[in-house]
Write a structure and sequence with these properties.
468 residues
Length: 468
């Protein structure tokens, strides 16, 4: 029998350095996908575990145990894809977007951009989809009104990431709650301490900025009218289309199990697809698997504005496979680190001088920002620090939802503020405004960190664990 050795601090640090180098160079320099790079990092960490005396079966056993713990959350991701496809085919999300665009007021352009982008993002669970559809429409409005493009882009980004953080359909929201072992809805509610406070400040900011301009007599550009006109032709509006949303909200408020609530809401959405949108059975099933497309409601993609295509062609279980895969790869790396106790050694060493809640939250934020900047991958930057810090939070007597909230404050919202990340590049190219130009106006994205530090310093909104 081999003698198992506990890694030194340097030995524990080596796999982390290897992972950061592999991801940093692979993604940043060669534009490679993150999944095989994470597997390579896991192999390196696994080799070190074997050298330290741990068997292959022990490594696989630890990885399996970790995946088992978060499997429920990973299954939620698949159901989320099912639900988005259903809500699209049933017309629920298109109807809310339609009426949202109808109420645009030129004088309150930035405020409207923030609120409607937030609404779309909450409903779809994607900041990229919100920015790439409603965001593009608002940038067209801003150009037509000769408005401050950086301000409107910042408002779109803020709104898009507000929804991304608070939507139970978001992949990062599900990953954050999963890696910390927190109930999904409990995690969403807890984020109101930072994201909700940031949103209040953002609303005031965009309202004031709107009053400083002279857009009261400006007209909404033609593209917004084209989008609403096409939506009106594609879908049949009915008050019952709101029923799936009401079911999700009711399930959230009453804290019912997430997956059954989503499946019930999806079932009603699919009934709406058949009854009101006249989608045939084959397309209804296909929407839940591969996502919705406009041909299901009798339109050819070539005849529909590309902005609407980007908005409507989404959902389906297959759309979540990439997120599912990267989560499994990241957990595989974490498992190889955990079996040797390397993560414990690292965190104990890093936090040996952390004596307060404020320092712990600040350390988490700094770690997440560095990981995001180096790896350019938000999912990895949530999963790895989450694995590393969750025991430290419990030892300090803090509820894991404090960690899951901090992960989102310092990763989900800040990734798009770093020019060289995929999110930063996407937002800049999609909205037509440089990352560093819209950064000052995307105030919700960095206010979350500020509020996280304020609450950590004051103890407000910091949930302690009960002794039991």
């Amino acid at each position: 029998m081999k003698i198992k050795k506990k890694p030194t601090f340097v030995q524990a640090l080596l796999p982390i350095i290897a992972m950061l180098l592999i991801l940093g160079l692979g993604i940043g320099l060669f534009d490679l996908p993150a999944e095989p790079l994470m597997i390579l990092a896991a192999i390196i960490s696994g080799i070190e575990a074997i050298v330290l005396g741990y068997s292959y079966d022990e490594i696989i056993g630890e990885i399996s145990a970790k995946i088992t713990k978060i499997w429920g959350a990973l299954l939620i991701l698949v159901v989320v894809g099912f639900m988005i496809g259903s809500l699209m085919a049933g017309g629920t999300i298109p109807m809310l977007i339609y009426y949202g665009l109808k109420v645009i007021s030129p004088k309150y352009l930035a405020l409207a951009a923030f609120i409607i982008a937030a609404l779309v993002s909450v409903l779809t669970g994607t900041s990229w989809g919100s920015a790439g559809t409603i965001g593009v429409a608002f940038m067209g409005v801003a150009i037509g009104m000769n408005a401050n493009l950086a301000l409107v882009a910042g408002a779109v980004v803020s709104g898009a990431y507000f929804g991304d953080k608070l939507s139970p359909l978001s992949d990062t929201t599900n990953l954050s709650s999963a890696v910390c072992g927190v109930d999904l809805y409990e995690h969403v509610y807890n984020q109101l301490w930072t994201t909700g406070a940031s949103a209040i400040v953002a609303v005031i900011f965009y309202f004031v900025m709107g009053q400083l301009g002279n857009l009261g007599s400006a007209k909404v550009p033609e593209m917004v009218g084209i989008m609403t006109s096409n939506l009106d032709k594609m879908f049949n509006w009915n008050i019952l289309l709101l029923l799936p949303i009401i079911i999700v909200l009711a399930g959230s408020i009453t804290k019912k199990p997430t997956i059954p609530v989503m499946l019930v809401a999806s079932a009603f959405a699919l009934i709406n697809a058949k009854v009101f949108q006249h989608v045939n059975l084959s397309d209804i099933v296909n929407a839940t698997i591969n996502g919705f497309n406009v041909s299901m409601v009798g339109f050819e993609a070539e005849s529909v504005p590309k902005e609407l295509i980007r908005l409507l062609h989404r959902g389906g279980m297959m759309a979540m496979m990439n997120t599912l895969l990267i989560a499994i790869c990241a957990i595989s790396f974490a498992g190889t680190m955990t079996v040797t106790g390397a993560l414990t050694v690292l965190v104990d060493g890093l936090l040996s001088k952390v004596t307060s809640v404020f320092k712990l939250v600040a350390s988490t934020i700094v770690t997440c920002l560095i990981t995001t900047g180096v790896t350019s991958n938000g999912q990895v930057s949530i999963l790895m620090p989450g694995e590393a810090f969750k025991e430290a939070y419990i030892k300090k007597g803090l509820h894991p939802k404090v960690l899951s909230r901090t992960l989102e404050d310092s990763v989900t919202c800040t990734e798009c503020l770093i020019p060289w990340t995929a999110a930063g590049a996407y937002m800049a190219s999609t909205l037509g405004v440089a990352t560093l130009s819209y950064l000052p106006f995307a105030i919700l994205n960095y206010l979350g960190i500020i509020f996280a530090l304020i609450w950590a310093a004051t103890g407000i909104g910091i949930t302690k664990l009960e002794k039991k």
